[in-house]
Design a protein that fits this description.
Radius of gyration of chain A: 21 Å
Shape of chain A: globular
Order of helices and strands of chain A: EHEEEHEHEEEHEHHEHEHHEHEEE
Number of domains of chain A: 2
Strand order of the largest sheet of chain A: 10-12-8-13-11-14-15
Strand content of chain A: 25-35%
Mean pLDDT of chain A: 92
CATH class of the largest domain in chain A: Alpha Beta
Number of strands of chain A: 15
Oligomer: homodimer
């Protein structure tokens, strides 16, 4: 036997992935990449990748996994909910790029003792979301898992190259808007944790029931994303999968701006306000830092305010709330009546 | 609290996924799908999905995961090997469709205590394969894993719609060819298991060392796949990820044919022959059923034999061996000098 030329583990660096966190890991990977071809309009670090094709049409690609014990708990969600959500979170990533989803690939890691009926339920939910979003399940992969159940979904779509919404194209003075309301999913999960509900129970209170539903079956803003892109109204856009606080910081950092957010303007879901208040917590920071909201944060330039009125009219009852603006100086400010508040951290995976 | 309308687990059916197996699961999912748009040229059940785009160019999409404890063992492969292989197996799927890979998405599930240097090594290998195959890493996702390390890779490419190689277009009388040699990867894994090697040891015997390398770093036949597609030489094609026995059965079943394979013609890797013989096993069935060979099985119609000579000349030293033919009757026959032998099963994941 001889020693091969392969590298051995580097004993000098035993920093763990948990210690440096998801964002630093992504940045570390990005720094390692060779220069990409010019056709790659958007690479690592946005909601999805964008690759320019022929006739100005681009492909948009996103992948996102739901892992049992990390992203879902079978005491709180049925597998139909999990299948629905596994596709919904990817549809949300494409919406944030202004793209219509088209095809999905389903990569399943299944514990060998999982009942086949569980796979059926998972597929029920996934195909419900597919029908709602016009997505075709085109292929995938099934492997054995010695650990948790994992549902990893890739979604592809198209968008006109000059209509792509990235995180990076915001400018100082652009107004910041958020769709719908925030904090619902994290409040719904809080209710489920407190009540130990078993996948099919919901609160009697309607606002809280909405929160639980938002945790189990998020509503990606596919139509809004396309509208913002197609009309050229959005300058920058991102979904709130890791919370509004995170999204504001990410859009500002990618755009090379700061941001000023007016706390009183933030649309906190009534169920979340109620839930956090009843538990002695301030609903504002809890809702700002809570992940799993699949609303869109987007920036609108002053000259696009006409387009914004059009988008408002076509939003079909979805609230679009102005919450602040991008600023020339790089600070991230959360203010209430001119008094500065601390901006909470976003949700991180490690 | 009230009961919601969500479905409850079906207590009548507790058949597990291990009991019905991967292929039946895929078939079960396929039966559940609504009819696909006509632009989906190839859906679930082939090496990759194919979606027709503009100007006769189609998108090809594949996803495949490597799971620690299922697909790799860190005693036997470095993480650089694992990263290399995670992309290679997807490049192989695209090769089997006649497509050139273009973009990859990397979905990582990382145990929180994994050293960051391990992620670096994984990326070393993945980027080596990316450079070798002309693939750009365009995006991905990082999640926490409460269980094994998982590397799930999606690859996309393009192919002219009329040049797509599927499993289903073989005809009776088409000659069957296999590239390279078979059995190497399973023999290499056998050696590693016997010697308990720790990721960087290789056998002194050159043929066996090739087998170990084939297990750690498979060589996808990207150039051959494109050549078979572009010249119109291949009628049906599939990679040998689950072994040659499996591939023959899959191509015949998808094409609605049978197959006759001449055992003496099968190119068993010399290291595999040696390894199995030394361990008292018949190299033929062991090599036929061993997975993880990333060679191509392809069918060639009689009228394409001129094209096949061209492909042979351009194969740059890669052996292309005729091993049998597709037949009108649906039986799968393995023969040695006219005597029928039992055809072994392919590798299955459950």
């Amino acid at each position: 036997m001889k020693r091969g030329p392969l590298t051995t583990p580097d004993s000098r660096s035993e920093t763990t992935v948990a210690a440096i966190g998801e964002r630093a890991l992504i940045e570390r990977i990005r720094r390692r990449l060779p220069s990409a071809p010019s056709s790659l309009i958007v690479g690592i670090g946005d909601d999805a990748a964008v690759d320019e094709g022929e006739r100005g049409m681009s492909s948009v690609l996103s992948v996102d996994a739901l892992v049992e014990g990390v992203h879902f708990d079978r005491r709180f969600s049925t597998l139909a909910d999990v299948g629905y959500k596994a596709l919904a979170v990817n549809v949300s990533d494409l919406a944030a790029m202004g793209s219509a989803p088209r095809l999905a690939l389903l990569s399943l890691l299944l514990p060998p003792q999982l009942p086949v009926s569980d796979v059926d339920h998972l597929l029920d939910g996934l195909l419900t979301m597919a029908a709602e979003s016009g997505v075709t399940l085109a292929g995938g992969n099934i492997s054995k898992s010695p650990g948790p159940l994992v549902i990893d979904v890739t979604v592809t779509g198209t968008v006109k190259a000059r209509r792509v919404l990235t995180r990076a194209d915001g400018k100082p003075g652009d107004q910041l808007y958020v769709s719908g309301s925030i904090g619902a999913a994290v409040a719904g999960l809080g209710w489920l944790r407190e009540h130990g509900a078993t996948g099919c129970e919901t609160p009697d209170d309607t606002a809280l029931a909405e929160c639980v539903l938002r945790h189990r079956r998020p509503a990606p803003r596919a139509r809004l994303g396309r509208l913002l892109g197609r009309t050229g109204t959005g300058s920058a856009c991102m979904d709130l999968s890791d919370g509004l606080a995170d999204a504001v910081q990410q859009v500002a950092a990618a755009s090379g701006t700061g941001a000023r957010i007016e706390a009183n303007a933030i649309p906190i879901h009534p169920g979340a306000s109620k839930w956090f208040s009843e538990h002695g917590a301030d609903p504002l920071p809890a809702s700002l830092s809570g992940g799993d909201d699949y609303e869109l944060l987007f920036a609108v330039a002053h000259r696009r305010r006409g387009g914004m009125r059009l988008v408002q009219r076509q939003a079909r009852g979805l609230a679009l709330t102005r919450i602040g603006e991008l600023t020339a100086d790089r600070a991230i400010r959360l203010e209430r009546d001119g008094v500065q508040l601390p901006m909470p951290e976003g949700f991180t995976h490690f």
